[in-house]
Amino acid sequence: MLLPVFPKSRLPAIFRGYATEKYGGRFNKFSKKRISPAPSIKRQSKPKKARQHEFGDTLRHGFGELNGLANIDKIDNVKSNVGVRSRFLDYKILEEVRDFFTKEIKQYSLLYQHQKIRESKQTEDNPTPTDIQKLAFSEILKPRNSKNPYELRIFSIAGETGCGKTYAYMIPLINNLKTDQMNKVNDGDKKKKIVEYNENFTKTQINSVILLPTNELIEQLYDVLKNISELGLTVSKLNFENKVEDLIALNKPVDILVTTPVKFNAIKNYAGSSQVYRKLVSSIKYCVIDEADTLLDRSFLSDTMTSFHQISNMSGMVKDLVIVSSTISKLFNKNLNEVFKNNNIIKICSKRIHRISKKLDMRVIDCNMKPFRNSKMNALKQCLYSIYCDNTEADLQVKKVLVFVNEKESVSKIYGELCSDDAFKGYEIYKITGENSIEDRMQIMKDFNSNDALLEDALSTNQKSSDKTVKIPNSNIKLNKSSNNDSTSQPRLKVLVTTDILSRGINFQQTSNSVLYDIPKTTADLVNRVGRVGRIGLPGRVFMLAAKGESKGWVTGLPKAVKNGTPLA
Ligand SMILES: Nc1ncnc2c1ncn2[C@@H]1O[C@H](COP(=O)(O)OP(=O)(O)OP(=O)(O)O)[C@@H](O)[C@H]1O
Questions:
Q1: N or C end of the chain: smaller count of CB under 10 Å?
Q2: Under 8 Å between Cβ of 367 and 547
Q3: How would you list the strands of the sheet with 320-325, edge to edge?
Q4: Cβ-based neighbours of 69, under 8 Å, separated by 6 or more
Q5: What's the whole-model pTM score?
């Protein structure tokens, strides 16, 4: 079932032919005469070395010095050699922990979900650790200094978006918690003894804390840990809906507390007496600061550091602090070195950091060219239509597209435009900004992530066409159209318009398409927005819309840089 994006009556003359001809053949005919090749094509003929140099320079200029990404080659003592061990079995991980996580990865990994749908036989394979996981396991699982078992070790883990950093810190953390738990009980039936030990607790005791910047990420991580009770461990979250009082009243060990720095700092106020507070936090031995490039930037730094100082001051027992990030900006690197200057930070970094996955098909659309008439909205509508019509993800019932903008005001504008356009009647359009209540945000994320078929009658106009391709006008972008135009098998489209609020850390379920409506303000924003698709080596597509004056060298050079694996720093 096909939808005309631009109703014929409201279409500028230049569009009319395209709309009536359903984009395909007519576009090809027009494009030969009127459309000059996209600038990115012209630039591709430049000598490789000169272009890469120009790309790096212009990118830095484009995004400004302070927010630029650090050059990893210039950071001392970074551990990035993966080594030869290639299986979970090769690392000193407790057998039950290893079995638990390999099972979890197979069941819930985006990679395995993807394969399950496309090639069900592949799901028989056993997962292997990703590069960042191998690096992290090699360092964090090293035996501690036996002379000083409570020495604080600080690790910084940095790797490209979607490379599996969560398990890179989670598996060693669970391994440590489980080992500590086993050491607390005597030999014999350890499982039974651990249950008895936990039942005898009269006060809440937190054993480890994971700090995250947003409620969405807390929810996501809590979901990752939902089966952890199988290992005899407990997890609690402190977010918008959970009260600190309830945590205090639990009266049992909390092996992992997932929360934000602000919520964590609030525990002190609610604890009432310093004795209660001390009891709560004095058993924290492991602390993780995830999405640290956000939590150690200007807006969060003071809350994050208050949390960490509270943990280490009150307990003096923190053994491992793990700081995790997908980019290393100059500011982050500066803050990291300043804040932890007296400690040796063990820096673990994947070689692919600051690079965009080569599996991503990255395209730039110049909106200044006809027929978009410098209207990003027109270009966006055409993108959505083309994604909807092409034959990718043919086996899915629902295709999903993320649309990222810089300012929350633009979210409502775009959402309003798409909702009020009859051509988008059958699409499910969502928006999320910081202005939505947290409850709303959670519900919208749930709806967008669900893969249920949309209402049968959602798409009511069925237009048959024999064209095999759809082309985004005035670009070199041609997409194959679904070969099957039968209304029951045509996928449906969900579109989520949002800001950077959702650009960090979120695993969107079965989402392979993204439109960067605005040019991101910093390289870190670019890397994170793009990184919501094409995760863990999966294929994906990103369309970047460039208006008049935005088609600078680095913008048009981006697709080539992605293909060449050029670091964006
Ligand atoms: N060893 C593995 N094999 C297969 N899939 C994995 C493996 N490790 C993690 N995954 C899956 O990869 C996906 C992305 O992982 P994760 O969320 O940890 O990425 P990330 O590096 O933290 O990304 P970001 O920088 O965006 O936060 C998840 O669906 C996870 O289940």
A1: N
A2: yes
A3: 78-79, 345-349, 153-158, 320-325, 286-289, 208-211, 256-259, 235-238
A4: 327, 328, 329, 330, 354, 523, 524, 527, 567, 568, 569
A5: 0.81
Report how far ligand 1's centroid is from the alpha carbon of 24 (Å): 38
* pLDDT tens readout for residues 210-267: 999 999 999 999 999 999 999 999 999 998 888 888 888 888 889 999 999 999 998 8
Q: 423 — phi, psi (to 5°)?
A: -65, -20
Of all protein residues, the one whose alpha carbon is nearest to atom 31 of ligand 1 is: 109
**What are the distances in angstroms from CA 42 to CA 47, 429, 476, 556, 563?**
12, 36, 11, 9, 16
Q: Taking the CB of residue 233, how many other CB atoms lie within 10 A of it? A: 22
Instruction: Give phi and psi for 248, each to the nearest 5.
Output: -65, -35
111 CA: nearest ligand 1 atom: 5
Q: Which two tokens stand for residue 554?
A: 């680095």
Q: List C-alpha distances in Å: 370 to 43, 135, 561.
A: 20, 49, 26
Task: Give me 176's structure tokens.
Answer: 């440590």
Using CA atoms, how far residue 118 sits from 128, 155, 388, in Å, is 20, 38, 19
The 3-class SS string of 169-229 reads HHHHHHHHHHHHHHHHCCCCCHHHHHHHHHHCCCCCEECEEEECCCHHHHHHHHHHCCCHH
Helices (H), 251-329: 261-271, 274-281, 292-295, 298-315
CA of 340 to the centre of ligand 1 (A): 28
Residue count of the chain: 569
Domains and CATH numbers, the chain: 8-53+357-450+489-564 (3.40.50.300), 72-349 (3.40.50.300)
Distance, in Å, from the CA atom of 523 to the CA atom of 328, rounded to the nearest integer, reads: 10
CA-CA distance, 19 to 141, in Å (whole number)? 60
Q: Return the SS3 of 156.
A: strand
Distance 172 CA to ligand 1 centre (A): 15
The predicted-structure confidence for 2-49, as pLDDT tens digits, reads as follows: 344 444 444 333 333 333 233 322 332 323 333 333 333 334 444 444
Distance CA 381, CA 378 (A): 5
Atom of ligand 1 nearest to the CA of 166: 18
- Max mean pLDDT among 78-82, 226-230, 304-308, 397-401 falls in 226-230
Q: Which backbone phi and psi does 237 adopt, to 5 degrees?
A: -125, 150
| H-run or E-run covering 449 | helix 438-449
Comparing 313 with 453, the larger pLDDT belongs to: 313
How far is it, in rounded angstroms, from Cα 367 to Cα 365? 6
Pocket mutation for ligand 1, best pick of 103, 105, 221, 503 (most atoms within 8 Å of C-beta): 105
Spatial distance between the Cα atoms of 321 and 169, rounded to a whole number of angstroms: 10
User: How far apart are the C-alpha atoms of 511 and 113, rounded to whole Å?
Assistant: 12
